[in-house]
Amino acid sequence: MAPQCIYETAGRKTLGGKKQVNEVWNNIQESEMTITLNKMEEEKKIVSISTDIGIEKSDELSTEFPKSIPNKETRMNKIESKNVNCWYGDFHVLRDINMEIKHNTVTALIGPSGCGKSTYLRIFNRMNDLIEGFRLEGEILIDNKNVFAKDVAINELRKKVGMVFQKPNPFPKSIFENVAYGLRVNGVTHKKFIEETVERSLKQAALWDEVKDKLTKNALSLSGGQQQRLCIARAIAIEPSVVLMDEPSSALDPISSAKIEELIWELKAKYTILIVTHNMQQASRVSDRTAFFYLGELVEYDDTKTIFTNPKKERTQNYITGRFG
User: Fold this and answer.
1) What's the confidence (pLDDT) of residue 325?
2) What is the CA radius of gyration of the chain?
3) HEC profile for the chain?
4) At 113, phi and psi to the nearest 5?
5) Of 11 and 149, which is predicted with more confidence?
């Protein structure tokens, strides 16, 4: 029999009726428990309650449903890597990588040059497929779908997984056409829809106010920082769910870098972001979790605060304190 919670208080339902409770409970995937709420009397008391959902017995009941119970989306991982090994020819570049990345988070990939972090980043949109001799074993799951499955269309995958490169690479077109490019390539012809998408994307990339009066000008006339934000706007215009960033601010001045960092923090409300960076301060500022790679191995993966203040591995401590790398 499923465990029950029965709340009593003065003839009214504190948390709503049976339908509302079912909606809340349906968000808890893979659970076989159900919650039943009764009508209530004057004093709030818990007659019986299961501790399986993390609520301890108490004389009084909060009118809010427990915040510790996550909804369906936050419980499921957005990205999973399972026993991933990669080779370029005979060179074993990544070894037994296992990671789980949640929805709407920023994950920083750090480590010395040549440690495999950029190779790992490019796995998710299969850009490594373009490199001769590349081979992968293991599973890469996005929304629980293996991106290396035979039925996966790479073009469709790259609509879902956007990419921003180290060096700004705007097309030699107008600012407007740079952002609209992905829509046009994918067959979108509705003029008003394109215009609205371009404006929305530029606003999300914190660039609209700077370029709204010169959308027809060549994108190459923009500053380096503006060009990089334009590339971010171009990447998100096709509504991906994951955005990959390979050292997006390494070629920019400090002021432009700060704008990119602020933008990353804002974008995570809508996207799941992975960022490769050599800048330890940047990783500590913008990311929720940090993964330290060394010689093709994932040495440590944890909350960013833990990685930078109390790492578990000595190699992690040595790297972030500048003793090597």
Assistant:
1) 61
2) 24
3) CCCCCEEEEECCCCCCCHHHHHHHHHCCCCCCCCCCCCCCEEEEEEEECCHHHCCCCCCCCCCCCCCCCCCHHHHCEEEEEEEEEEEECCEEEEEEEEEEEECCCEEEEECCCCCCHHHHHHHCCCHHHHCCCEEEEEEEEECCEECCCCCCCHHHHHHHEEEECCCCCCCCCEHHHHHHHHHHHCCCCCHHHHHHHHHHHHHHCCCHHHHCCCCCCEHHHCCHHHHHHHHHHHHHCCCCCEEEEECCCCCCCHHHHHHHHHHHHHHCCCCEEEEECCCHHHHHHHCCEEEEEECCEEEEEEEHHHHHHCCCCHHHHHHHCCCCC
4) -55, 140
5) 149
CA 80 vs. chain centroid, Å, equals 12
Q: What is the pLDDT of residues 132-153, one digit of tens each?
A: 999 999 999 999 999 999 999 9
Structure token digits, residue 33: 């428990």
* Range of weakest confidence among 50-64, 177-191, 244-258: 50-64
Nearest to 244 by CA among 148, 82, 128: 128
Determine the Cα–Cα distance for residues 4 and 37; give it in Å rounded to an integer: 8
8 Å CB contact between 301 and 289:
yes
Look at residues 204, 214, 277, 189 and name the one whose alpha carbon lies nearest to residue 236. Answer: 204
For residue 42, which amino acid is it? E
pLDDT classification of 302: cutoffs 50, 70, 90: very high
Contact of 238 with 162, CB cutoff 8 Å? yes
What is the pLDDT of the chain when averaged over all its residues? Answer: 82
Q: Provide the phi-psi class of 311: left if phi over 0, else alpha when psi is between -120 and 50, else beta.
A: beta
Quick: pLDDT tens for 78-110: 999 999 999 999 999 999 999 999 999 999 999
